[in-house]
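Q: Structure tokens for this one, please.
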Amino acid sequence: MRFRMLGPLEVTISHRPVDLGGFKQRAALGYLLLHLNQVVPTSRLLGAMWSGRDTPTTARKILQNAIWSLRRTLSPPEGTDAAVPLLTQAPGYVIKADPAHVDLYTFHDQVKKGQDHLSAGAPAAAAGLLRDALALWRGPVLADLAEAGVNWPELTTLQNARLDAMEDYFEAELQCGRHAAILGDLEAMVEAHPLRERTCGKLMRALYRCGRQAEALRVYDRARSALVEDLGLEPSHELRDLQRAILTHAPGLLADPPAVRGPAARSAAPVAAAGPAAPARAEEPQARPARAARRRRVSVLLVCSQLGPAFDDAAAEVVDEVIEDTTALVREQLERLGGTVAAQMGAVILGLFGGHGEGEDPHESAERAVRCAMALRDCLTGGPAPLARDLAVRSAVVTGEAVVRPPAEEGGTYSVNGALVDDCQFLLPQVPVGGILTCDRTREATRHTIAYREIRGTPVRWLVDGVPAGDGGAPPVPEAALRRELGLLHGLFLRTVHRSLPHLVTVLSGVDADRTRLLTQFRRTVAEGDEPGGAPGGDAVRCLPFVRVEPGDDEHALRRAVLRAYCEPSGAEPAGAARRRFEESLERLVGSAAERDWLRAALRSLLNEANEANGANEMNGAPSPDRAQEVGTAWRRFLELAAAHRPLVVAVDGLHQAGGSLLAAVENLAESFAELPLFVIVGARPDLLVRRPDWAGGKQHATTITLSAPSGPPGAAMTRLLGSLDRATPPR
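A: Here is the predicted structure, written as tokens:
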């Protein structure tokens, strides 16, 4: 039997979920699990179940009934000798279970081990343990109970324990030199918890190491303002010392000494002791066995930077400095845009995109590789004059299957081998200065977002020519940033479901691939039922397939596409299947025979079936003017019935191409219903705001999200490189 508390309360027996019943049963179980293997007095349990409310005279009887129901639910399967974990023991009740079978106590154990490794000066091992511990969280602790109004002090303590563990994880990653990788998560945590000085300090250090000194100082200013305004306090001595160190460029900011922090410095203790305490001594990290190599579909980027004639008379040590700073900039830019440095030979760097696990999109990996090559070309040859005059860069990108070996230990590097790498090496010498050549597969995967020019008279190769209009050449949005936006979408969806309020979310991005990735990930997690935050998913929600807008589509096209999506979820049905699904839906959703007949007659045309009874063939066009209003009314009624039956998600992409009537219909869709769990999420390029500057403005239930890619090259690397160039090539 397994218990999951770090998110909605869940219990599984033999890997099968258990129906825990109503609120009282779940609240009683949740509170007993918070005090695992400890007797909780009846009076205390009653106070928890009716916290903040008047306790009814029948409260004790209600509790007894809830315990009785739970005991039956938690009974082990017949034929096993396992005992029922819920026991009556004076003066109350107790849950007897192995702490290893409760995710909360597994979290505490992992965090303790991670803290021990961190104190012992093993940050890589600590980062792995803390990362695994934090991955156990699926949302706020006991999220379903908290959403129902439960506000136990223990829940606040656990949320603080999670934040403490996150700070320890950030500390471990900083000591490993992975400041760029955690920057987005640090920024999000500081924004959510501006009064946590320890987190602010880690963000300041990470920003400083990324060459963003001014932003690091602004973090301090914001933290000080929040402390003074909210609490009337000045920042701690540690935070003020860090600000002074940044102002004076103290050498210690660029590297962390091993942490020396004892257990007494921690505030993240378990809510209650459960089982024997972990040993106080630090454990040495165990050697990890080599991880097996696998064939994966990846994209490989080979970048070669070369020095120009201006370096011919420069001293050897100065030339070495320029080469080192150039390759450092290439490495930082590559990692910033989602790649992994797999190998380096002098001024040639091999970058790997993809290959980290199952579920990766090979088209996305190819696009990231090409955009990374474009960003490197722009910052090395299209920036300040010394760079353009004295440096040259060539890049080649190939896509296909290769042998990828994961790192043997945390913080290590991936390696990639095979014919794919040979193909890239063959391509690189043929790249013109400042150019980017790709193979056929890379071009095919990215041709919708990257413009190419074919080099004729040679084996088929493609020269990157730019990006389509409206794309702007922006690099892709980092995965961490997308995860933050995905969390926001899940929060809005949770609000829609629990408060039964319709909502319109618009996702804007000039990079079509980024917008599609976010919409696809959101729809997948909802459809598969594994989204965070406690919202229902899977069979409990109806998530329609994507509706993609074509240029000039009108309101009738949207109605037809949405109804088809509802009636043809598989996308490949034999003739007549849509009609049968439509009839089945009417039988399931509509109780009145007269209303079913009206909806059937009004909406038949949207399924591409002629409505001969009305004297017009409406298979391909909009309904006649005298019937347009009736079709619109019937369509909205059908949506209302569908959403009332199960929360409904309607996803529309490419809205910037829509006609005026379609824009108005989508904008007002959520406002058309008063109380209904209807979640409408639409994607568009920023061009939409040019056509409609007031898009969704003033709507009560509307949110707009703009995806922004990282801007510009890393400041610290570029600054060091410019300094090296100045020393190597004095002004002419």
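A few notes: The mean pLDDT is 77. The longest strand covers residues 391-405.
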